[in-house]
Amino acid sequence: MRNRVCQRVCSILSSIFAVLVVLGVDGKSACGDEGMFPVSEIGRLNLQARGLELDPKEIFNAEKPCLIDAICRVNGCTGSFISSHGLIITNHHCAYGAIQKLSTRENDYLANGFLASSRAEELSAPGYTVRITESFEDVSEKVLSVVEPGMSFLERTKAIQKQQRTLEQAAEEQNPGRRAEVAEMFVGERYVLFLYVNIKDVRLVFAPPSSIGNFGGEVDNWEWPRHTGDFSFLRAYVAPDGSPADYSPDNVPFQPKRFLPVNPRGTEENDFVMLLGYPGRTARHNTASFLKFEQDIRLPYLVETYQREIARLEQAGAEDRAIALKLASRIKSMANVEKRSRGQLRGLQQLRFVERRAAEETELQAFINADPQRREKFGDLFAEINAVYAEMTDHAELEFGLRQLGTGSPILGLANFIVDAAHERQKPSLERERGFGDNVFAQTRERFELQQRDFHPPSDRSALEATLIQLSKVEASKLPVALANAVKSSESIQQFLDHLYQSNEILAASILNKTLEMTPGELTNVDEPFIQFAIALYPTLLELRERDKDREGRLSRYYGDLFNVKREFAAADSSRVLVPDANATLRLTVGRVEGYSPADAIYKAPFTTVAGLLAKNTGLDPFDAPPQIAQLHAARDFGNYLKANLNDVPVAMLYSTDSTGGNSGSPVINARGELVGVNFDRTFDATINDFAWDHAYSRSIGVDIRYVLWITGKVYGATALIEELGFERP
Ligand code: ASP
Predict the structure, then answer these.
(1) So what's the pLDDT on residue 45?
(2) Which of 342, 589, 682 best tests ligand 1's pocket when mutated (most atoms within 8 Å of CB)?
(3) C or N terminus of the chain, fewer CB within 10 Å?
(4) Residue 585 beta carbon below 6 angstroms from any ligand 1 atom
(5) Strand partners, 192
(6) What span, in angstroms and rounded, lies between the C-alpha atoms of 345 and 427?
(7) Short-list 692, 585, 661, 570, CA closest to 285
(8) Alpha-carbon distance 683 to 685, whole Å?
(9) Is 15 in the pocket of ligand 1 (CB under 6 A)?
(10) What is the pLDDT of residue 730?
(11) Which of 537, 564, 591 is the last residue of a domain?
(12) What single string gives the DSSP state of each residue in 517-564?
């Protein structure tokens, strides 16, 4: 296997190298730099000049176990193995969905925390999977071989997607038990097939109470200074023969090829640090027209809609803890996105990003126009891209409303899924939409089944009502008839909602099981108002999907061109830096532990302390840390975790890496390859780095390992865990 990996890596290395030459990765920088680098590039980054004490081959080596074998993807987050028995450390907010699903009014693990006193007590984390990158291969030629000159943009997108599925299926057949995914590394031109070990039995080992793991809540989210103990421990299990398997009490802890040693002494200011992880999405190369769409249309819509929804959901759970528990994960993830969007809006406006990017484009256009050949090839590039965002702007009210129908109302979302599945499953597996192929359908289905457990019809209804009111402002002729009729007047909206929510058993599990086996024709006979509404919506949602694919095809083609011309431009001016966007594949970023100055005369130092936490502690949610923290602190019972120059246990730290959503849970690793913290956030000023990274304001936030160990070992007495990490009792 490793030899094959090596060959694959060599081919990707040479192809990506052409881009990295213009990335300016010369290793001279003393501080953090922009760049979430594919691990194949590690050898080229001159990391030792930046402070790495290891041989970079220790981080990534196609031939033998290396640090990347210790990194895993935990649903949409990152985690790392920190023992030979499959123990994973990640964020509390990454394990939140599992903690929430496992919590009841009687056993409220969100409020009280959870600690398994033995392996047998570790709890299966519903819906959780852990993936480890096993190998990767550049498949650009194979993917693009299906694109033909006369194809429309829609046909192009469909052909590429089908080819991606074909390659994934072939790879999974050749590698039983593995999950394959083709990722687009550079829009429209570079595709890489990743093979993952996909572990399905994941268990909760230790989660502190939310009053530690989510200390500060949304008030402190995306802020610095920060005092959140955002960590928890999971464990990966496999069948006794080592193969990934569904949950079974007979399963055994997974043995990773490598785990990260934990350094309980943590870091100092100015230390080199790096993150390995799965950053989700960035849009660093997008045009001013994209940024304007974000600034004027999408982000304001999102902030307004989510604020409204969060308020409703919070109110729904205010009197009843069981309801609050059902809704907790949705509220948390919406609140996270809402606040991030506000940060991005503020950054876009204050830093005048649209204007700045437009000015860059004027320069680039001049460069294009200066050469007749270039002009011939790229002359209309910006006009073509701008036309896509103009079209999206024109359709935004309708399209956002249609999408929000099923997102705001998870019940309608499930009905849409049932109808979609009935249609998709008529097609050959390779031609289906993502998530419906035979190899992944069971997992998609499980996701919806888990969501179903959290249905709460009253809040679902009020969310749907808000969306219907919004859609009543759209010209009726643009809506499907059933929807247009429903939104005719405020009375018709209420009547329609009464009709939808009449049953006490809306889309119960029995209906789900039955309807998921049906054809579209059979579904029309099902006497269930949500399913009938979803059937009526289906043609419009399908149109929307096709329109998205057409746009994707246009953007993929023209952003590919833009990237190429930028590359030429960068080659002509060595001060210009191009960095590949994140796409949820394994990346490395490096930086230093350092503070920053967000505004005139303000400096934010890089460590917070338990004393700082106690100063914030009002005793009221979300600043209500458990009393043991104050007691141990008063007794100065710091175990081995005192940071001398702070005369305290450090809680969180700040560093200048290049990170985004998906890097949550990434290990913060020191120059010797040891774990010294767990990344969980960025500052409010740094939310904008999804569009443009800058050392002046881009700071990531991690929980300090000393606080993790102090809470785990001292405050909760989880000595078995501390010993599993190779330390004596604290
Ligand atoms: N806390 C963030 C998130 O969950 C992580 C980040 O974006 O830096 O999305």
Answers:
(1) 87
(2) 682
(3) N
(4) no
(5) 138, 183
(6) 42
(7) 692
(8) 5
(9) no
(10) 57
(11) 564
(12) T--HHHHTT---HHHHHHHHHHHHHHHHHHHHHHHHHHHHHHHHHHHH
SS3 per-residue string spanning 137-172: EECHHHHHCCCCCCCCHHHHHHHHHHHHHHHHHHHH
Q: What is the pLDDT of residue 10?
A: 34
Using CA atoms, how far residue 300 sits from 128, 203, 218, 455, in Å, is 32, 38, 19, 27
Distance 701 CA to ligand 1 centre (A): 9
665 lines ligand 1 (CB under 6 A): no
Atom 1 of ligand 1, nearest CA residue: 681
What DSSP character marks residue 355?
A: H
- Of 19, 24, 432, 59, the C-alpha closest to 185 is 19
221 CA: nearest ligand 1 atom? 1
Cross-strand pairs, 591: 273
Instruction: Tell me the three state secondary structure of residue 116.
Output: coil
The token pair that represents 174 in the structure block = 């050749």
pLDDT of residue 727: 86
Residue 415: CB atoms within 10 A of its CB come to 28
Instruction: Give backbone dihedrals phi and psi of 34, rounded to 5 degrees, phi first.
Output: -65, 145
Burial class (CB in 10 A: 0-12, 13-18, 19+), 497: middle
476: tokens are 């009726």
| Pocket flag, ligand 1, residue 666 (CB < 6 Å) | no
Classify residue 362: in a domain, yes or no. yes
Q: Is the CB of 292 under 6 A from ligand 1?
A: no
Q: Is residue 117 part of a domain?
A: no
| Residue 254, helix vs strand vs coil | coil
- With a 6 Å cutoff on the Cβ, whether 684 touches ligand 1 is no
Among 540, 564, 588, give the residue marking a domain's end: 564
97, part of any domain: no
Q: How many domains does the chain fold into?
A: 2
Residue the block writes with tokens 């569904």: 246
Residue of the CA atom closest to atom 3 of ligand 1: 661
Q: Is the CB of 680 under 6 A from ligand 1?
A: yes
Distance in Å, CA 88 to ligand 1 centroid = 19
Residue 13: domain span: 8-22+40-48+55-64
Residues 688-697: pLDDT tens digits? 999 999 999 9
Number of Cβ atoms within 10 Å of the Cβ of 166: 17
**Total count of residues recorded for the chain:** 730
661 lines ligand 1 (CB under 6 A): yes
User: Mind listing the pLDDT tens digit for each residue in 182-194?
Assistant: 999 888 888 999 9
Euclidean distance between CA atoms 556 and 564, whole angstroms: 12
Supply angle C-alpha 209, 234, 177, rounded to 5.
150
The whole model's pTM is what? 0.93
Task: Tell me how far apart the alpha carbons of residues 652 and 663 are, in angstroms, rounded to a whole number.
Answer: 16
What is the Å distance from ligand 1's center to 683 Cα? 10
Question: What is the distance in A from the centroid of ligand 1 to the CA of 489?
Answer: 41
Nearest CA to ligand 1 atom 7: 661
Tokens of 562: 């833009």
CA 641 to chain CA centroid, Å, is 31
412, part of any domain: yes
Q: In this structure, which residue's CA is closest to atom 9 in ligand 1?
A: 661
Q: Which segments of the chain have a pLDDT < 50?
A: 1-31
The label of the residue with tokens 């419906």 reads 436
Burial of 265 (0-12, 13-18, 19+ CB in 10 A): middle
CA 638 from centre of chain: 34
Whether the CB-CB separation of 424 and 433 falls below 8 Å is answered with yes
Q: Give the mutation target among 336, 681, 687, 700 for probing the ligand 1 site: most ligand atoms within 8 A of CB.
A: 681
CA torsion angle 183 189 190 193 (round to 10): 40
Please name every residue paired with 701 in a beta bridge, in sequence order, or none if there are none.
654, 681
